[in-house]
């Protein structure tokens, strides 16, 4: 099934069930008011929501209306956890190569993961508001899963069963703040402002056979200023599957329902597939011609992130955002 | 006023108003069911809760009962943000000196802060459950504030007004996992398991004149296995005040209601004040005798963290935890 969150002026919005073709929606009235509440009691809620989803797809749901992604918040407008991996190690290797830094061999078998801020996500079509272009504003196109409760020490073979939903992410990054911040040794902080998510979160079964081995085997499309710049296949070159990332996350602690785990910037070794963040394009330029050419995002620039199924239909709806200057 | 969260089997528990002397409590019935809900609508809720607090202190509250910290969850059992600073730069300098690493001068004017996991906090008297002693289990005694909504780019002089509540924290750390994790460059992750918090969160006015310039001017007492090992004054050698930490947090993003901001391990330059984490004690031993002597915590060890007012009364109640081996 497909779920979304309607802007209603409240902090957590209103849970919507959305039709498979993303054309209609209805409020999950009398079931769960918010997505977090549904996740908190998933085994009880999911069958009811799924039944409503079937009625909606069959044109038999009461009080359905046209689905409008611009009226959506992030599926989880605020979450209790956002942990972002870096599974496409090719991307990490490229970025490091561009600055002549070797990559430790351990990066191929021990996942990189950072804890992100999760209190204030932005909606799929909300502006990316920033005070300064000098910060090096970049997008990062990723896939994320939302989990149920996962116990500390979970084994890889048991981790997949805790995956409830999948989404797309724009993990906005401030490239020019990263070097100084990482040099301090405590990881990303100011360099990772609020992330945005696709209008719709979907259960794994919606992906059909594109969901296997804990990976999504479809191209992730990124368009910068309306030009397609990347379409790497998210199932290719993903060194750590989502179950592996969840296992990494839970080595020393539980993860509770509503935890979001990101894949990291999707990247294929085949450079013809383009890029899912400007930093990677700049790394390739650095390696090829000795200096980066493509600028980071400026005020007014736009980014669209989307994933289509085998029939060309959008699965999650599109993230479509503009970068806007903060005033006041 | 003083607020706590009662274990009731639910994920967020039941909001309690607790008397100033920590002897009685009552359920904030008909007001806010949970602390997060109170924080979400603080201007509306706080006066009502404060009125109940006055009645409770005067022995005039209906349905009050004996307050029992062992039945408490963390005041926010799960939070949308936990951002921990490192304001006692003395502590950072000592730990680095012990491993013969210079500290960049920037650490004195640019706060260190990391994003912590916030989805699964442990209660003030809950066990610290860990799979292995080999991870180097340590406590870290800290102070934290809970904020309301804070806008991106907030100025230091405006940050204090967003502080709603204060708590004590045990920021449990796994010392032997830290070096390899920090070497990866993405900051703490597995080395920072679930944190625990004091039974009670208090509004700043409860601290009287001990709350000034965005710092708490009282000793923070840590007892390891029932022996007092530290009582540094949290108002001394705190290089970055809470308003400064909040400003750092909000440089590139908003912080939303219920954000928890930590002070970092409390530490005084005066070594006679003892220590608020074993790592600091070991650093002092390393500097003095060339090797660390004090071991990290073993299964069965206990830690108590408390702050007393000028009259010797506990302000927040005590964090009192034992380290326990995970089974299964």
UniProtKB/TrEMBL annotation, chains A, B:
Residues 82-323 form the Fumarylacetoacetase-like C-terminal domain. It holds the Pfam family FAA_hydrolase. One of its GO terms (molecular function) is hydrolase activity. Gene3D superfamilies: Fumarylacetoacetase-like, C-terminal domain. Keywords: Hydrolase. Residues 1-78 form the Fumarylacetoacetase N-terminal domain. This is Fumarylacetoacetate hydrolase family protein. It comes from Undibacterium hunanense.
């Amino acid at each position: 099934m497909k779920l979304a969150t309607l802007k209603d002026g409240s902090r957590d919005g209103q849970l919507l069930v959305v039709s498979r073709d993303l054309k209609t929606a209805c409020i999950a009235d009398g079931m769960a008011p918010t997505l977090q509440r549904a996740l908190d009691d998933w085994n009880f809620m999911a069958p009811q929501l799924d039944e409503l989803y079937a009625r909606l797809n069959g044109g038999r749901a009461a009080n359905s209306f046209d689905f409008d992604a611009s009226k959506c918040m992030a599926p989880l407008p605020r979450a209790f956890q956002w942990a972002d991996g870096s599974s496409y190690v090719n991307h990490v290797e490229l970025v490091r190569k561009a600055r002549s830094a070797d990559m430790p061999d351990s990066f191929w078998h021990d996942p990189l993961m950072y804890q992100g801020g999760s209190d204030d996500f932005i909606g799929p079509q909300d502006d990316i508001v920033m005070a300064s272009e000098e910060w090096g504003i970049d997008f990062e196109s990723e896939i994320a899963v939302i989990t149920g409760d996962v116990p500390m020490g979970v084994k890889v073979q048991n981790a997949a069963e805790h995956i409830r939903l999948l989404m797309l992410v724009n993990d906005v990054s401030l490239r020019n703040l990263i070097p100084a911040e990482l040099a301090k040794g405590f990881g990303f902080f100011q360099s990772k402002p609020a992330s945005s998510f696709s209008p719709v979160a979907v259960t794994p079964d919606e992906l059909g056979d594109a969901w296997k081995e804990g990976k999504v085997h479809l191209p992730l499309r990124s368009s910068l200023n309306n030009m397609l710049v990347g379409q790497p296949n998210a199932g290719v070159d993903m060194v750590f599957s989502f179950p592996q990332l969840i296992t990494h996350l839970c080595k020393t602690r539980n993860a509770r329902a509503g935890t979001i785990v990101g894949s990291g910037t999707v990247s294929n070794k085949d450079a013809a597939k383009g890029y899912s963040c400007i930093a990677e394009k700049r790394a390739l330029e650095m390696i090829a011609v000795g200096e980066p050419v493509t600028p980071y995002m400026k005020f007014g620039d736009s980014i669209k992130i989307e994933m289509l199924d085998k029939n060309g239909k959008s699965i999650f709806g599109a993230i479509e955002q503009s970068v806007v200057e903060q005033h006041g």
